[in-house]
Amino acid sequence: MTEQPPVLLRMIELRFLVGALGERLAWWPSRFTDDIGLRRLATPFPRTTLRASLESVTIAARRDHDARLHPDSIHLFRLGGAQEDAIAHQLAQGAAPLQAPPRDLDGILAALDSIGAAGANGAVPVGPCSLGKVQRTRLHAGVADLARVYAAAARTGQRAVPYFEVGG
Question: Which of 32, 86, 117, 125 could potentially form a cystine with 2 if both were Cys, beta carbons 3.0 to 4.6 Å apart?
Fold first, then answer.
């Protein structure tokens, strides 16, 4: 069984925002979400430019996260198989209304704050940080947790790589 579509749509939105955040802060070496990248993608993908941008930045961010985390970790850019299939289906069907991320860092952080419902309290995680065991219900709540961690780290000039542990 897969996650409900509203959770998937939030994950898709969060991927696009964090992907853009990572590009603006040079966390990964890509430029798929800025004006230049979008113009370049518009030529081969005129009707699906935003989808191509999202999928491309997801691959760049996934490689970065995979290199920093245990291979069994679940993270924003590599969810479980059922969730990844459901996201791919949503995108293929055009059911996920994509909007380009804000151009500037402040706009991206404001969008992350709206998902995470304000800034993180307490210490900002640095490097790989577990958000607990992955569970179906936890992944739903995890959207806000992920948004808060990425935004808080970016604001402090740090780099956090949040993930969920697989297991009971």
Answer: 86
- The Cα 164–Cα 78 span in angstroms is 10
For the ranges 35-39, 45-49, 92-96, 127-131, the lowest mean pLDDT is seen at 92-96
Q: Cite the DSSP H helix spans in the chain.
A: 5-24, 35-42, 49-68, 81-93, 105-116, 136-155
Structure letter (DSSP) for residue 37: H
Reported for 21-27, long-range contacts at CB under 8 A and 24+ positions apart, including other chains, are 21/101, 21/105, 21/108, 21/109, 21/112, 21/150, 21/151, 21/154, 22/57, 22/60, 22/61, 22/64, 23/57, 23/60, 24/105, 24/108, 25/105, 25/154, 25/159, 27/61, 27/64, 27/159
* Residue 19, pLDDT above cutoff 50: yes
pLDDT at 119 over 90: no
Give the global pTM.
0.91
DSSP state of 119: P
Residue type (1 letter), 64: D
Model pLDDT, residue 138? 60
